[in-house]
Amino acid sequence: MNQLLKEHCQTALALIVTFVGIILFISFREPSKTTLFSSLSEADKSKVVESLRQNGINVSLDSATGEVLVPSTDYYQSKMLLAAEGLPESLPNGYDSLDNMPMGTSRSVEAVKIRNGLENELARSINEISGILGARVHLAIPDKSVFVRERGKPTASVFVKLGAGRSLGKIK
């Protein structure tokens, strides 16, 4: 009886180790993806995906939500490439992506969606200034951490496309 119990324990341990090994292999095999855009028109989605693929970025679409996903390490490079090409052409409503977040969304995904919403709302506000044809805003907001005493300051990059013969004054 004691021998039978040992064999069952060894078999169970082997199965658990195998299961954990498979989980680790799968999780490390595919890089983590983050949402680049969550609410784009189909035309803009197509242009964004094509542009990113031409620039060698591994882009994919979430089949459930239609979000444009890129590897986390390529997030800022993707934003800069698309901004240089003027994509997406239409600006989504900044906070639309927060409306359809499923329950159980992780804090990191929620933070990315909030940052995207802020970027889009700022860009929409800047676009309302006379003489500006288009604006893109990229925010770099450091994560809050209880382990870091001095947190970096948030920064923003703003790309503005002016109308012909227009310039921005100091007030703008």
Give an overview of the whole structure.
With 172 residues, the protein is α+β, with helices and mostly antiparallel strands. It has 2 domains: 1-30; 31-162, 2-Layer Sandwich (Alpha-Beta Plaits). It is built from 5 helices and 5 strands. Strands 1-3-2 form a 3-stranded antiparallel beta sheet. A hairpin with a 6-residue loop joins strand 2 (60-61) and strand 3. The chain is elongated, with a radius of gyration of 23 Å. The relative contact order is 0.11. The model has no long low-confidence stretch (mean pLDDT 81).
Name its key features.
single chain, 172 residues, alpha+beta, Alpha-Beta Plaits, 2 domains, 3-stranded antiparallel sheet, elongated
State the helical fraction.
40-55%
Q: In CATH, what is the class of the largest domain?
A: Alpha Beta
- Topology order in helix (H) and strand (E) letters: HEHEEHHHEE
Q: Considering the protein shown, what is the CATH homologous superfamily of the largest domain?
A: Hypothetical protein rpa1041
Number of individual domains: 2
Fraction in beta strands: 15-25%
Gyration radius from CA atoms, angstroms = 23 Å
Q: What structural category characterises the helix and strand content?
A: alpha+beta
Instruction: Output the number of helix runs.
Output: 5
From the N-terminal CA to the C-terminal CA, the straight-line distance is 84 Å
**Might you state the CATH topology name of the largest domain?**
Alpha-Beta Plaits
Oligomer: single chain
The mean pLDDT is 81
Spatially, the strands of the biggest sheet line up as 1-3-2
Q: Which CATH-level-2 architecture of the largest domain?
A: 2-Layer Sandwich
Please report the total strand number as a whole number.
5
